[in-house]
Amino acid sequence: MQSIEVIKINNLVEVAINNLKIHFRSINGKNGWHQYLGSDKIGNIATAQALLLLDACNEDFNNKHLAYDFLINAQNTTKAPLLYGGWSYVTNFSELPTTECTSWALLALLKNYSNTKKTKKGLQWLIENHPDKTKDIGWGTIKSDIPRVYSTCLALRVLKKYKFHNSNEFQNSLSWLIKSQNTDFGWGEQFGHKSTIFHTSFVISTLVEIYDSNNSIIDNGISWLIKNFNFTIENSNSNIGSQEIIDFDYANGDETKHQRLIYFHTPLPHAIIALIDTGNIFNKNVFLALNEIVNNNNNGYWKHPNFNDSTQKPLWLIYNMVTSLKKFTLNVKNWNDVKKIELKNNKRILTSNTNPFNMKKFFENFIL
C-alpha cells in the first residue's frame, strides 16, 4: 500500500520556501538568488525560478520587487544582432543571451510585466533567434546551435503564454517537436536520440499547455512514460537526476570559440507533473515518487546524483521538487481537509480530518 500524508508535504513545502527566502542576496546593487544558494553572485535563471516558485505557492516576500527589478535590468541592451533583448547566464556563458535564460526570465515576468517594452523586446529576441522560420526546426541554446528538445519546449511555453502561438517560428518548432517523437513514443535530448524520462515528461507537459485536450501524440507519450517510469529504490538515482551535455561553437569577433554547458535535469518531479497533467494522479509511481521527494530531502534541500559537490544547495532542485509537490496538492480538492491518501490494489482509501459521517459526500468530489 502506498500513502501520501498531507502534513508531511505541507511542512516540507513550507521549509523549502523558507530556505529560498533566507538565501535572498543583495550584492553590489544586484538583488535575487544564485543557482547555488549562499553564493556571492546573483543569477538570472535562479532569480526567475525563485520568483516563479514564490508566485506558485502564493508566498509574499518583501524583497520580491527588488528581484523583479534585477531581472528586468539584467536584460541585454547592447544594440547588436543576437544580443539586444535576451538574457544570458551569469557564470557559465555570459557572452551571448541564450534560449533557456531568456525563456525563464520571460516566464517569471509574465504575471506582472507581460506588456512592458522589456518583455516585448525579449519576445522579439526569442523569435529572431529561431534558426529558420521557413523550416520545421526547433530552438537550440543559441541561434547557430543544433535544435534541442529542452530548449524548444521552453521557447514554445513562453510563446504560448504570451499568445505568440500563431507565429511561423512557433508552428514550425511545434511541428519539429512532434516529429522528434521516437518510434517508441518517447523523446530524447535531440531528434533521434534515445528516449528519456525527463525529456518525455517535459515534452508532455509542454504539449498539454499548447493543446486544449489530450491527443494521440500526448496519449502515446504518456503510455511510454507510464511503462518506463517504473519507480523503485534500485533505480531511484536515475529517476531523480540525469545530465545533458551541451556543446556548441559561437563567433567571438574574428575567431570561433567552443562552449560546453551541463544541464542537471530532474526526471522524477517532471514525471510527476506530466502524469498529473494527463489525469494520472493516482498512478502508483506518482505516490512512490512523491514519497521519494519527501523522504530524501535534507531540511528542505535536495542533492542531485550527478552533481559532485555535496556541499552546494541547488536552487533548481528546490524549484523542481516543490513545483511537483504543489502540482499534486492543487489537483486535490479540499487538500487541507485530508489527512492521508492511500493506494491499495489500484483503489484509493482516504482518511479525512472532517466528520466521518460526511465523508461519502466529501469524497465524491475529491479530485479536481
Features:
14 helices; alpha+beta; 368 residues; 3-stranded antiparallel β-sheet; 7 strands; two-stranded antiparallel ribbon; disordered C terminus
* Rg from alpha-carbon coordinates: 21 Å
User: How would a crystallographer describe the biggest sheet?
Assistant: 3 strands, antiparallel
The SSE order reads EHEEHHHHHHHHHEEHHHEEH
Q: In one word, what is the shape?
A: globular
The average pLDDT value, as a whole number, equals 90
| Lateral arrangement of strands in the main beta sheet | 1-6-7
Would you report the number of β strands? Answer: 7
Share in helix? 40-55%
How many helices in DSSP terms?
14
Which regions are unreliable across 5 or more consecutive residues at pLDDT < 50?
A: 355-368
Straight-line distance between termini: 23 Å
Strand content: 5-15%
Find the structural class using helix and strand composition: alpha+beta
Describe this structure in words.
The strands form 3 sheets. The protein has a 3-stranded antiparallel beta sheet. The chain is of the alpha+beta class. Helix 2 (44-56) packs antiparallel against helix 3 and helix 6 (149-161) packs across helix 7 (168-179). The protein starts with a strand and ends with a helix. The protein has 14 helices and 7 strands. It is 46% helix and 12% strand.
Describe the secondary structure blueprint for this structure.
Layout (H helix, E strand, L loop, with lengths): L1 E4 H17 L2 E3 L2 E3 L11 H13 L7 H10 L25 H15 L3 H12 L20 H13 L6 H12 L17 H14 L5 H13 L7 H5 L1 E11 L2 E11 L1 H11 L6 H12 L19 H16 L7 E7 L2 E6 L6 H6 L4
Antiparallel strand pairs: 1-6, 2-3, 4-5, 6-7
Helix pairs in contact: 1-13, 2-3, 2-4, 2-13, 4-5, 4-6, 6-7, 6-8, 8-9, 8-11, 11-12, 11-13
